[in-house]
Design a protein that fits this description.
alpha/beta; Alpha-Beta Plaits; 2 domains; 13 strands; 17% strand; globular; binds ligand BES; binds zinc ion; Pept_M28E_Ap1; aminopeptidase
Length: 419
């Protein structure tokens, strides 16, 4: 029986080579009041990953003295396997070493959930009925006019100043709380705007949600998000580009929206997701929450890595065409052309569920992700101690372009007015 085999073959928790690994079971003991003591030590989880990644992961497992179970299901080059929570970090590193970040995995609580995810749900009718028009320049241009590079840079500096934003680490929790405080302070003049934590039962780091309620179409929701956590093979994970930059790009839009007294027709939610780096876990719970509560999410924009421009790149933005919505991508390209200030865009693919947009796609919502480059020509320093803003000339010029894009997306999809 696979479950028994996995439990037997799981590593003893004190064996972890990385300091963070040892903290996971400890944090879980504190945070899972319902879990049994044994379960809290090292839970079984299910992951989906590219079938081509099975062999390297099996090799890495063998090196650690762990056994890899056979996949329970494989469909369209993606396999589902059972693992222990303590093994996630090792798997993440294999992906990055072997595939140069081009093979991800997604984590699920149950086998059923994991297997269902291999077949994305069809789009709910509401998504298909959205009409994409570009006719709200007054509001968008007010917001774009208030975006500043020092504003974006300050958020990157603040977030990357935490030693790590790893999802089980105390400083990862502190960073999320600080982001909520930052957003609450930015929106202090607006009593209708809320900045809340979305807590996750299975780990310490919360997600953060800022909501601008819509006026006449409040039940329709536009989401702009990015992950707030970071990861690296050591204990220091500044994650300046991955993904303090994405958070900073849209935090600047929040600042501009408040400054312009922006009042959208649709409700706008800005979300900093927890625990992306360990399998899109925060966004998966948030997207499922919206689905399960029949929330009408009309569009999702993901910002993950916005501030690194490789000197040899002639383009500024890669529009990711897989695990995203084609109609909304067309809208996004038009937004970039209209409001991007002359920046150059290309299409690109991740080849797998590489970031939180895939969580929304998997729940049937329309999601898009404009990336800092084509995926293959991106930042070589991510997931290392060297993912700092100094790799980007210590400025946020590139990330500011994504603030313009996000402001255009919000102003045109949620519509509404500014003063
Ligand atoms: N920011 C990356 C995703 C990414 C990397 C997009 C390079 C485009 C180019 C993200 O934080 C990440 O590391 N994702 C993991 C997969 C995830 C499911 C754990 C990855 O890419 O391996
Ligand atoms: Zn990452």
């Amino acid at each position: 029986m696979r479950l028994a085999a996995v439990i037997r073959d799981a590593p003893p928790t004190q064996q972890g080579a990385l300091p963070m690994k040892r903290l996971i079971p400890f944090a879980l003991m504190l945070l899972s009041p319902t879990a049994s003591f044994a379960g809290a030590e090292d839970r079984e989880l299910w992951i989906s990953l590219g079938a081509d990644a099975m062999e390297p992961v099996a090799e890495a497992f063998a090196k650690e003295g762990w056994k890899m179970p056979p996949p329970s299901l494989t469909k369209k080059e993606v396999s589902v396997i059972a693992v222990r929570e303590s093994q996630l970090e090792r798997i993440a590193h294999v992906m990055h070493e072997k595939f140069n970040r081009c093979a991800g995995f997604v984590t699920f609580e149950t086998q059923d959930e994991a297997e269902k995810s291999l077949v994305p749900e069809p789009l709910a009718p509401t998504q298909e009925l959205v009409t994409y028009t570009i006719d709200n320049a007054t509001a968008v241009n007010c917001m774009i006019g208030r975006l500043t590079e020092p504003g974006v840079r300050s958020t990157i500096t603040t977030l990357s100043g935490y030693t790590t934003r790893y999802y089980t680490h105390t400083t990862g929790v502190n960073a999320a709380n600080a982001l909520r405080t930052l957003w609450a302070n930015i929106a202090a003049s607006r009593s209708d705007i809320t900045a809340e934590l979305f807590t996750h039962a299975a780990w310490a780091q919360p997600s953060v949600v800022l909501t601008i309620p819509g006026s006449t179409l409040a039940s329709e929701i536009v989401v702009v998000g990015g992950h707030l956590d970071s990861i690296s093979s050591g204990s220091v994970a500044p994650g300046a580009d991955d993904n303090a930059s994405g958070i900073a790009s849209f935090t600047e839009v929040i600042r501009a929206a408040v400054s312009c007294n922006y009042r959208p027709l649709r409700t706008v939610k800005f979300i900093g997701y927890a625990a992306e780096e360990v399998g899109l876990r925060g966004s998966k719970e948030i997207a499922a929450w919206h689905k399960n509560n029949n929330k009408n999410v009309v569009g999702v924009l993901q910002l993950d890595m916005t501030n690194y421009k490789r000197p040899t790149n002639t383009h500024d933005v890669g529009v990711v065409t897989d695990y995203t919505n084609a109609a909304q991508n067309t809208f996004l390209r038009n937004i970039i052309t209209t409001y991007g200030g002359g920046i150059v865009q290309r299409d690109t693919t991740c080849g797998y569920a590489c970031s939180d947009h895939a969580s929304w796609t998997n729940q049937g919502f329309a999601a898009s992700i404009p990336h800092e480059s084509t995926v293959s020509s991106g930042n070589p320093y991510i997931h290392t101690v060297n993912d700092t803003i100094s790799q980007s000339g210590s400025n946020a010029n590139h990330a500011l372009k994504f603030s313009r894009i996000a402001a255009g997306f919000v102003g045109e999809l949620a519509k509404g007015v500014t003063n």
